[in-house]
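WARN no homologs supplied; continuing
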Amino acid sequence: MTQRRSFIQRSTQLLAAAALTTLASLPLMAQAQTVDVIRVATDATFPPFEFYKDGKRTGFDVELIELLAKNMGKKVEWTDIDFKGLIPGLVSRRFDVASSAIYITEERRRVVNFTDPYYPGGLVVLTKASNTTIKQPSDLAGKKVSVQVGTKSANYLKEFYPQAERIEVEKNQEMFNLVEIGRADAAVTGKPAALEYIKTRPGMKVLDKQVSIELYGYAVRKDLPQLTEEMNTALKKVKLDGSYDKLVQKWLSAK
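OK structure emitted
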């Protein structure tokens, strides 16, 4: 009986020691997994920044992130999730960087870091070309306006255009579709995406007067300040060597 009790006690001690060893190694394992790899999340439904074409993820953000990683000597591991999950995913450390045409805001800065701005943008109003009742942003009052949930557009409308009836949807394409089929009078979204959309939709238009002026930045986990610095250094480098300008010309210049 004494031998059996001794065996059980020793087995328990060994298991406890093994568990402690495993737990102690977890930070090192996590660090080792991210030394040469940047885990980047995106909602690839927002051309020309991130979207799928012929089954392949592509766009301005996608190519710029890959370019920055190459300059940093790292590889990119992509994850596709809904936009509303990007910031929470960074906070919970599911990934390292969020790249999805994200506007830099003070609210977001409280929980994540941002790189230096990599492109100027802003919110605009998209509506049908035949619409004569919405001529400027102030005309959104009393109108049905579609926005993507979790975006600056949704929060901006709530704060500055409370009289507009917000219709929040999960995906960017849904937001545009509601306007086209008449279930929404207008959509408020990022200027580059809106201009890209109307290239193939002659029945749609973007108002000349913007709703707001914003800056795009890559969101980074708060506990990875070194990664933010490395990305900023790489961003400066690609702007100096001309490779950044080539991507802007390819994806964002008027055609």
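The longest strand covers residues 119-128.
OK
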